[in-house]
Amino acid sequence: MTRIHDSNFFVKLVAAFAVMTAAWLLRDWRAGSALAIVVVGLLAVLRVPHLGTYLRGAALLVLLVVASWILNLMLQGERLDVALPVAFAMAARLVTTTAVFFFVMETSTPGSILAACSAARLPPIVTLVLSLTFGIIPMLREDFERIGDAQRARGMEIDDVSLPMRLRFALARGVPLLVQAIRMAHAISLSLSIYGFDLGRKRTTWREVGLLVEPRLQKGLSR
Questions:
Q1: Domain check: are 18 and 84 in the same one?
Q2: Chunked in runs of 10, what are the mean pLDDT values of the chain (223 residues)?
Q3: Residue 200 lies in a domain
Q4: Both 26 and 61 in a single domain?
Q5: Are 8 and 102 found together in one domain?
Q6: Is residue 205 part of a domain?
Q7: Can you give the residue range of the structural domain that contains 29?
């Protein structure tokens, strides 16, 4: 199992896209649901970290998707027996899609992503986008959990409450999470500026900086 977790980032990414494509090509809701169950079962067998958190989110996703699609289709004049298979098929596709990419994110460290991109000799902007996309999402999830712990520490009961109340509390976490995401983006951009990140150069370094810092930097930027 450890070897699967340590597989090349791009191997896991291609496999995730293949499974996602298969899920969206399946038309029958029974086949899609079976694929979703198999994928989630594999996550449990492989002991992917934070699986419990994902399962709670997936259960809420299924509930919201099924309810919204049934309501939407019935408002368009469809019968319930026609709306149900469509809603379950869509929920199954989304569960499969989120599950495979959850595996990629939870088993790929920023270092492993950077190493894979470097070995593939990808352009700097592609490396940056991939490392930030798959590295920041787990960090934001941890921030989301810390916000929930802070709410509990202040006496807010967010566990043993009704589903509508849980949704309200989850939305209440969205504001501080958005603020934290903006602060994180600012910190990352500041760090890139400090380390002289330059898209016009294959590798950014401070080694060429001597006594004449500004002229050297401007010369490098003009290339």
A1: yes
A2: 75 92 93 94 90 85 90 89 92 94 86 80 79 74 76 71 69 74 75 66 48 46 49
A3: no
A4: yes
A5: yes
A6: no
A7: 2-107
